Amino acid sequence: MHYKKLVEEYAQAMQGVTNDTKQEPLSGTVVAAIKYDKGVIMAGDTRVTLGHQIFSEDMEKVFAINNNVLLGMAGAVAAMQPAIELFQMEVDYFERKRRKRVKLSFKGQAKVLAHLIAQLCGSLPDGLQAQPILADQHTIYFFDTVGSRIPLKHTVIGIGAPHSAPYVQLDWREGLTQAEALKKILTVLKLSQYNTSVGPGKVIYTIEEEVKKLSEINQKGEAQ
Amino acid sequence: MFLEWRKEKEQNAEHYISNATVLVAASVHDGIIFVTENPSIYSKTAEIYNRIGIGAIGESASFNRLIDTAIELASTTGLSYDEENVWAEDIAIMLGEKMYTAYAYPELVAYNTELVVAEINHTPETDKLIVISYTGEPDYRHQPYVIIGRNTNSLKNKINECLKGRAFQKLTTKTGIKLIKQAIRATRKQKGRAIFEVSVLKRSVEGDRFQRLEGEGGTS
Questions:
Q1: Which residues does chain A have within 8 Å of residue B72's beta carbon, measured at their own beta carbons?
Q2: Which one, of B219, B13, B17, lies nearest residue B110 by Cα?
């Protein structure tokens, strides 16, 4: 497909950048997704950093793709943004080619994203320095940085994950209510914020029949 | 010099276009609407990019190829730059060139289709409806509505009659669609119930604006 050329171009452009800055991916992020009885809840922080410097406190890292899928991203912004744009284009391209009479299925979308990651990873010397999660109403797909996709019930990615993922894992069960899932996800955001350089969590999305943005989280870390 | 092959191409295109049912595209208060009769499973209207839609009549193999090319061009432009930088003119010029080349060279097969490329903007006054004939000649005139097809005078008169002095720009999507359908029903020559394909480009929605309302893949 024609987008492969764009991926190659992007990989070439990124080669110089990653060669000069050979280091571990700087990811001061936490994005969590938890499945509950009727859908999936996903939340993330909004801080952008470079080393110790904070650039922004309001860049959203959870995106609604065509209002039926949620995409969360952790990692280097330079790797994140083109990956999201390419993914969004690939989904739209599929639907437009079919005159918008059908939608690309969730499994199809997960496969497209996995291929995209594998391609970008293969052509970059340090691999893709970003990690996505993709969720619809029933499943959460976890991706690693080389392109494998694993269906899960709950996951936390980013630097906040070691501090907060065990908390989610410990007493997660089938048939969690939305209120319980919300409480859990707020705790994940708080734990990450207390223990690492992750910024305060600001946005929460849920996906049931369609994507819904819950109201903003206040200073105390409570959803309003 | 009399060009036999060119005359043949013209006849061929005219045959397809004059036998096709007409398509009306109109720029109304809250969107751009495409209305056409279409009982087949092939869509005559499509989304090119977020702000750009297309309507086509004639040979389906011809316009399907053209629409696919336009989608590809728009996707790459939109990815490299931004949604705002994908213009109807760009699409129209590309399609026009393609159609002209096919029409003007004897060894190529011409596209037996006529198209309307529509771009939605903030107001109906800034909307664009560009008609491209089978010779590849784009018509950039600003018009509140366009009809593509042949023998459209009676339909045009009927639409003007139904409008009763109102302008399309003041109408809502719903009334606009109702009006055009009424005019098409009154002037159509085919017998039986009319099956419509109706699509809309919504003005207020951010991002994904193209929606199918009736016909194959329609939501209501």
A1: 2
A2: B13
Place of tokens 């009763």: B164
Task: Dump pLDDT digits (tens) for B160-189.
Answer: 999 999 999 999 999 999 999 999 999 998
Closest CA to B183 of B18, B44, B23, B55: B23
In this predicted structure, the answer to whether residue B156 has a pLDDT above a threshold of 50 is: yes
Partners of A97 on chain B (C-beta within 8 Å) are 68, 71
The correct CATH number of A3-214 out of 3.60.20.10, 3.10.129.10, 2.60.40.10, 3.30.70.270 is 3.60.20.10
Q: Do B47 and A67 touch (CB under 8 A)?
A: no
- Chain B environment of A3 (Cβ under 8 Å): 75, 79
pLDDT for A218: 57
Backbone angles phi, psi at A42, to 5 degrees: -135, 135
Query: Hey, where are the domains in chain A?
Result: 3-214
Per-residue pLDDT, A216: 64
Interface test with A, best of B75, B205, B210, B212 (most A CBs within 10 A): B75
- Give the confidence band of A197 by pLDDT, cuts at 50, 70, 90: confident
Whole-complex ipTM: 0.91
pLDDT digits (tens, 9 = 90+) for B86-106: 999 999 999 999 999 999 999
Are residues B145 and B165 in contact, defined by beta-carbon separation less than 8 angstroms?
Answer: no
Q: Which residues contact B137 (CB under 8 A, 6 or more apart)?
A: B96, B100
pLDDT, tens digit, 9 for 90 and up, residues A101-125:
889 999 999 999 999 988 888 777 7
DSSP A209: S
Domains of chain B, first to last: 4-214 (3.60.20.10)
Q: Of B198, B161, B160, which Cα lies nearest the Cα of B178? A: B198
Query: A23 CB contacts (<8 Å, ≥6 apart)?
Result: none
Residue of B nearest to A1 (CA): B72
Nearest chain A residue to B41 by CA distance is A101
- What is the distance between the alpha carbons of residues B130 and B88, in angstroms, rounded to a whole number? 8
Q: Return the structure tokens found at A122.
A: 């293969």
pLDDT computed for residue A19 by the predictor: 47
- List beta partners, residue A217: A223
State the pLDDT at residue B39. 87
d(CA A175, CA A117): 32
Can you count the helices (H) and strands (E) in chain A? 5, 12
Query: How far is C-alpha B24 from the chain's CA centre?
Result: 7
